[in-house]
Amino acid sequence: MKKITINVLALALIAGTISCDSLWEKENVPEAVKIRFSELYPNITTMDWDEEDEGYEAEFELSGRERSVLFDTKGKLLRVTEEIGTQGLPAKAMAYVQQKYGNYTLDEVHRVNEVNQIKYVVELESKGDDVSLSFAEDGKLLEGDAAAVQVQEASLVGFIPKGEPAFAKPLATWQLPVELREISGIALLPDNKMACIQDEEGVIFIYNLGSKNIEDRIKFAGPGDYEEIAVAGTTAYVLRSDGAVFEVSDFNSKKPTVTEHKSVLAATQDTEGLAYDEKNKRLLIACKGHDDKLGANKGVYVLDLTSKQMQLEPLIKIPLAQKELQHTTGKKKDMYDVLQPSSLEVHPQTGELYLLDAANQRMMVLGDDGNIKRSVILDKELMRQPEGLAFGENGEVYIASEGSKKGNGVILKYSQGL
Questions:
Q1: Are residues 79 and 95 in the same domain?
Q2: The Putative beta-lactamase-inhibitor-like PepSY-like domain covers which part of the protein (predicted)?
Q3: CB 156 within 8 A of CB 114
């Protein structure tokens, strides 16, 4: 086994190899299964194995989506199950779901390839009723039980869309240059321009949405983990992951003035969301991480722009136990992972707070009491990792998503929010 691991995963770290070996050994995976898996997925170093009646099943992520493969004890591939979005369903299947289960919440959609037969499995939930539906490749219903069906794991929450899935068809798309592959924050500027940051350089990139080029680079600090940007007039504010906020006055001038506002937040809070609250002349900060002192809550904090002081106590506490946060993508290490804000913004017309959650592939509207008012799952095929959110003055939505190692970051535009 050790020889196979080294040959196939030559680019993996030694620690990763050891971890992979321990995963093989944990379920006593047969050698034939190990070899076949490594042949099919040579770049996968992290997976979970389970022994099933039919053989051995591995669960892992590929291109940001969950996948599982089932082998018999001799290494023959029996089944491949792949997480997909609703846009991957046959039109006939989608129409059936909308007509018969319009009031249900979408939990999961999978494409299953088994013995040269492809089918689609849709799992739905409504007030304790769990429904599993299976469709053929042409969209014809194969099986389904309208009675309560126990679903072991639900990974997506949102609303069954009427017509097209929510945020499935952007009005416009911008493929960003290599410098913005790891785009982490955006703020809309006048003259059809976007202020952008990425999470390695202390630079504000001015991207022209018309010419599709970076037309200016404004350095405000050295390298760091920069997560979000907000703009108020001629001043830009950039959030670093440790909670520090950089105030860049006259950022469009040749000599901008930079002031760093130190964080008072716990080191574990990992700040990623920053919004300018024009009505109250303050910045709002959302945390991807957590503070043990808040218990089963996460906080939204305030940096007052008059006193230039960051408040230690959160303005809003978001209860993590609320139902709207319980169905999320991927596996969770702890209770805090059900909510991992990557961006925060104030709607220019309604004043509502919008949260992006890249880890859980979700957009939410947050109430003043910390409860989720509305929520929708975002299309991972369009938005691999949605990190930045901005609004136009008429409520148009701009979402920025990081690219893969070989792909480009993107900005997508939609006509309205939730």
A1: no
A2: 71-142
A3: no
Please state the rounded mean pLDDT for residues 229-248. 97
Identify the domain containing residue 122 by its residue range: 86-144
CB 134 within 8 A of CB 143: yes
| Whole-number Å distance between alpha carbons of 103 and 123 | 13
Give the tens place of pLDDT for each residue, 332-381. Answer: 678 899 999 999 999 998 899 999 999 998 999 999 999 999 888 888 88
Residue 34, CB half-sphere, CA atoms under 13 Å: how many? 21
* Cβ(395)–Cβ(349) below 8 Å: yes
Q: CA 183 to CA 188: how far, in whole Å?
A: 14
Residue 161 counted as domain residue: no
Give me 22's structure tokens. Answer: 């321990």
- Is 274 a domain residue? yes
Residues 90, 79: one domain? no
Which strand (E) or helix (H) includes residue 173? Answer: strand 172-175
380 and 240 fall within a common domain? yes
Separation CA 299–CA 244 (nearest Å): 16
Angle CA 231–263–272, to nearest 5: 55
pLDDT band at 289 (very low <50, low <70, confident <90, very high): very high
Same domain? 180 vs 209: yes
Q: Fill in the DSSP letter of residue 37.
A: H
